[in-house]
Amino acid sequence: MDIVEQRLHAAGLVLPPPIVPAGNYAPFTRSGNQLFIAGQLCYGPDGQVASQHIGQVGVDVSVENATIAARCCALNILAQAKLALGSLERIEQCLRLFGCVNAASPFPSVSLVMNGASDLLVLALGDKGRHARMTIGCLLPRNAAAEVEAIFDVR
């Protein structure tokens, strides 16, 4: 178990199995030292979106549960990165996250929800987890509360 996974374990978290794409796309691609992780929904360790993470934030899903959903997305991002790299120790820096929140309109707190993903990456990667970020509200596949994609600098 590498240092990143030890940090997660100390926080009571484990990497889930990487999710197989539901469509005709790759879960990750690499170009030079950049690793692009496709959008990851808030699947739990059982490969399902938990009932408390289904629906529109602000209507069906609380901000607290949506923040946990965004954290699940980040765990799935790390699971894909480990599959791509063999070890999370090869991550030099998280460059950017792009988050989508299934939010009722108007819902001005999408950035608060996205903090779940940002905080998880900083917990797991330390300063290497600090990143640029954008978050929007939109409709999402499977009516999930959150979806997040990432770009990493890797070796």
Please outline the helices and strands:
Elements: H1 3-10, E1 28-31, E2 34-41, H2 63-85, E3 91-101, H3 110-125, E4 132-137, E5 146-154
Parallel strand pairs: 3-4
Antiparallel strand pairs: 1-2, 2-5, 3-5
Keywords:
5-stranded mixed sheet, 30% helix, 155 residues, alpha+beta
Describe it for me?
The chain has about 160 residues and is α+β, with helices and mostly antiparallel strands. Helix content is about 30%, strand content about 25%. The protein has a 5-stranded mixed sheet with strand order 1-2-5-3-4. A hairpin with a 2-residue loop joins strand 1 and strand 2. Helix 2 crosses helix 3.
The structural class is alpha+beta
- Average pLDDT works out at 96
Strand order of the largest sheet: 1-2-5-3-4
Strand content: 15-25%
| DSSP E strands, number | 5
The rough form would be described as: globular
Q: How would a textbook summarize the main sheet?
A: 5 strands, mixed
Percentage of residues assigned to helices: 25-40%
Assembly state here?
Answer: single chain
- Uncertain spans: none
Question: If helices are DSSP runs of H or I spanning 4 or more residues, what is the number of helices?
Answer: 3
Give the C-alpha Rg.
Answer: 14 Å
Order of helices and strands: HEEHEHEE
First-to-last CA distance: 18 Å
Question: What's a quick, concise take on this entry?
Answer:
This protein is 30% helix and 25% strand.
